[in-house]
């Protein structure tokens, strides 16, 4: 069963963008539970996953309230199909190895922190409150992923090689978070959504500084034609949703 979802409300689409980003990344990080390279990192990544799931609930609850019955946080998370998800394609990329997980995390965190920093000033009080609550967690996420990017990039020859390969592989997805979808642009004009142009310099500066300290070479930017913000996703998302949504689809009516 799929949720019949056709809302074009910009606020709903924006909430789903923010919720889907952290839910899908949280699901990816949850795959490390019991498989981390050390106990400390295993626990850290699992806690990040829990942080993201908690953040996603706040956005889904708001979207469900705007939509009204029969929508709920559960139906929005578990009963939409791939084209109805608005997450950026970066977060759905596979873990592959610890190097790729860390690079993916840093690319996301280095955008997410500055995004939430601005979202705290949103004209929408609900979004502002969610940002103020979430940024405390995300500040630690950014510190963690920055430190591990440096540690592995400027570590052994093998760790450096794997980190550079991961960066080369994921760099194509690094700019989507800074390119506004139509519904974002509409909300930016109303003072609700984050003006991505205002944070792009901070994001670029942070990435440049960390990659330089990690002795990693930033690849050339190449054209990116994917648009997860409009429901266009890589093959990975379907497999993620198959696992994420199994219980709700097998036993309808379950609640978080």
Helix-and-strand structural type:
mainly alpha
Which spans of ≥5 residues are poorly predicted at pLDDT below 50?
Answer: none
Oligomer: single chain
**Percentage of residues assigned to helices:** 55-70%
The secondary-structure element order is HHHHHHHHHH
Kindly, what is the distance between the CA atoms of the first and last residues, rounded to a whole number of angstroms?
A: 18 Å
CATH homologous superfamily caption = Ferritin, core subunit, four-helix bundle
Please report which band the strand proportion falls in: under 5%, 5-15%, 15-25%, 25-35%, 35-45% or over 45%. Answer: under 5%
Primary descriptors:
10 helices, 256 residues, mainly alpha, Ferritin, single chain
Can you walk through the features of this model?
- The protein has one domain (10-217, 227-250): Up-down Bundle (Ferritin).
- The radius of gyration is 18 Å and the shape is globular.
- It has helices spanning 10-30, 39-67, 73-78, 98-119, 125-153, 157-170, 182-188, 196-213, 236-244, 246-250.
- It has 256 residues and is mainly alpha-helical.
- Helix 4 (98-119) packs across helix 6.
- It is built from ten helices and no strands.
Q: How would you sum up this structure in a few lines?
A:
With about 260 residues, the protein is mainly α. The protein has helices at about 10-30, 40-65, 75-80, 100-120, 125-155, 155-170, 180-190, 195-215, 235-245, 245-250.
Produce the secondary structure layout.
Elements: H1 10-30, H2 39-67, H3 73-78, H4 98-119, H5 125-153, H6 157-170, H7 182-188, H8 196-213, H9 236-244, H10 246-250
